[in-house]
Amino acid sequence: MSDNTEYKRLWWHSRRGMLELDVLLIPFVEEVYRDLPADDQARYEKLLTCEDTDMFEWFMQRSRPEDPDLQRIVAMIVNRVQPD
After folding, report:
1. For the chain: N or C, fewer Cβ within 10 A?
2. DSSP secondary structure of 14-80
3. What 8-state DSSP symbol labels residue 61?
4. What is this structure's pTM?
5. Where is 40: in which H helix or E strand?
6. Cβ contacts of residue 14 below 8 Å, gap of 6+?
7. Contact call for residues 54 and 69 (beta carbons, < 8 A)
8. Banded model confidence at residue 82, pLDDT cuts 50, 70, 90
């Protein structure tokens, strides 16, 4: 599969239908994803397999994912919009 086809697939999977998630994930995939190391790209793809309700809780910092890979990518996305 070409890189562009894979990117388009990820872009569509980043559209969640919940505005709070869309405003975080779409800009992240458009502006950051392609420059990530392969490990972090895999973490992002793993994140997209999670339930929207779980992601919402993580991004609103009401809870944290148990998986360290998911903790890392969630932190990257949150820190992008809420730098320390």
Report:
1. C
2. H--S-HHHHHHHHHHHHHTGGGS-HHHHHHHHHHTTS-HHHHHHHHTTSS--SSHHHHHHHHHHHHH
3. T
4. 0.91
5. helix 38-47
6. 22, 25, 26, 28, 29, 48
7. no
8. confident
